[in-house]
Amino acid sequence: MVVLAPWRDLPALLARPAVLDALRLSLVTASVSTLLCLAMGVPLAWVLARADAHPGGPTGPARAAAVRLLRAVVTLPMVLPPVVGGVALLLAYGRTGLVGRWLYEATGWQVPFTATAVVLAQTFVALPFLVVTVEGALRSTGTALEEAAATLGAGPLTTFRRVTLPALGPSIAAGAVLGWARALGEFGATVTFAGNLPGVTQTMPSAVYRAFETDPPAAVALSLVLLAVCVTVLVLLRDRWTPGLPR
């Protein structure tokens, strides 16, 4: 792509209204989905990491099994084909879906083929990346600081807010950036659940797919933007994913 890209026409290609709309939608939805991932992913990571740190008690085996099941469910999107995730979201939130049917009957609003569907699809695929990153950081830091705070009289919420979160700041930021990049590049679940409507649900990967059939230079231009984002994220997070290697 770098060798054959239409570099001379690149500014004009990226300035097209359809391209700008896809870029704007992708940036907004990926940012919203990242916020959702932060709201759900940090507590989930804490539960997964700390449940294994305190396995004792009469309910230990049952709790361990529940934690393993929860971890499998949370990380499933990392290995699940995205289009399968899109089908699952459609069956859950479609007009006749398990949740979508009640929502449609109560409000007359349907989730599929809207910007909300784009956000849900992106959150579905991006959440595991943040959870895995934060859980790994929690395991590496251990529980010594939290136990010390507890002995000084701090409650669980205070300990989490004033001890755990500050220590996890860099890892949370790294997980958020990684999740944002994954959300920005999501295609399979998005096109299945949200469609590919220009100006409504057409994200950058969806625009690449459509442009490749009718306007290959525009597809290459959009692909270069996504490629640049991915390379930048990998360079910035290199020490987080490959510790010990020379810079």
Index terms:
247 residues, mainly alpha, MetI-like fold, 74% helix, globular, disordered C terminus, molybdenum, NifC_ABC_porter
Characterization of this structure:
- This protein has 247 residues and is mainly alpha-helical.
- It has a single domain (10-241), classed as MetI-like (MetI-like fold), CATH 1.10.3720.
- The protein has helices at residues 10-14, 17-53, 60-75, 82-93, 100-107, 115-141, 144-151, 156-184, 188-193, 204-214, 216-236, 238-241.
- Helix 2 runs antiparallel to helix 8, helix 8 runs antiparallel to helix 11 and helix 10 (204-214) packs antiparallel against helix 11 (216-236).
- The longest helix has 37 residues, at 17-53.
- Residues 242-247 have low confidence and may be disordered.
- It is a multi-pass membrane protein.
Short structural summary:
The chain is mostly helical and 247 residues long. The chain has helices spanning 10-14, 17-53, 60-75, 82-93, 100-107, 115-141, 144-151, 156-184, 188-193, 204-214, 216-236, 238-241. α2 packs antiparallel against α8 (156-184) and α8 (156-184) packs antiparallel against α11.
Instruction: Please indicate the percent range of residues in DSSP E strands (runs of 2 or more).
Output: under 5%
The top level CATH class name = Mainly Alpha
CATH architecture: Orthogonal Bundle
**Average pLDDT, all residues:** 85
Number of domains: 1
The CATH superfamily appears as MetI-like
Shape: globular
Number of helical regions: 12
What fraction, in percent, of the residue positions are helical? Answer: over 70%
Write down the secondary-structure element order: HHHHHHHHHHHH
State the oligomer. single chain
Number of strand elements? 0
